[in-house]
Amino acid sequence: DIQMTQSPSSLSASVGDRVTITCRASQDIRNDLGWYQQKPGKAPRRLIHAASSLQSGVPSRFSGSYSGTEFTLTISSLQPEDFATYYCLQHSDYPPTFGQGTKVEIK
Amino acid sequence: HLQLQESGPGLVKPSETLSLTCTVSGDSFRRSDFSWGWFRQPPGKGLEWIGNIFHSGFTYYNVSLSARVTISGDPSRTQLSLELRSVSAADTAVYYCASLDYSETTGLPLDWGQGTLVTVSS
Questions:
Q1: Per-residue pLDDT tens for A60-107?
Q2: Which of A49, A53, A70, B67 has the fewest CB atoms within 10 Å, i.e. the most exposed one?
Q3: How close, in Å, is residue B95 to chain A by CA atoms?
Q4: Which of A49, A93, A95 is opposite residue B63, by nearest beta carbon?
Q5: Cα separation, B37 vs A50, whole angstroms
Q6: CA of A91 vs chain B CAs: smallest distance (Å)
């Protein structure tokens, strides 16, 4: 199985901060990766697909990038509605595997 | 956005079978560029893939669950079904269905149902 190592597991940040979350794949997954936001009691919401393509309707403060097997989700200016848990998901090979999640909390 | 809605019992006894249905809005269930999947999330934990069904009817399952799980689709009812047999407390989770694009790969979830909590307890 492809392991997705996500870091950090949690972070505290203030409104307006720039936030970066990283997922590292245990092998080459090309750009077959998505990023999701999940709020308590809600289903995940897709933010990014193909590692760097912004999902329609998602604010432009969210962006994705990658280099080799390292993938990054960046929130350029954290907003109050962005406090949530974020997950990466690789869909390159079976089984599709999620990162462990990053909980973004208010400082 | 597609509308997906999971339904089924919220409480299942140990060793019995968990059965859930996901109803998909409109005609999207018949789209050949989509596949469909089930995921779950134990309380306070991360997300886990259960399995997929493709437009062809072909299915892929998580190896850890494959001996106990069946996913099927009913295009006439635009419904997706999940059956998980011989459940234990470890199967307690919120279960989600999702539409998947990027079907040339394993598929990437696009739209999700709201999720349904299934508790396994006697």
A1: 999 999 999 999 999 999 999 999 999 999 999 999 999 999 999 988
A2: B67
A3: 10
A4: A95
A5: 19
A6: 5
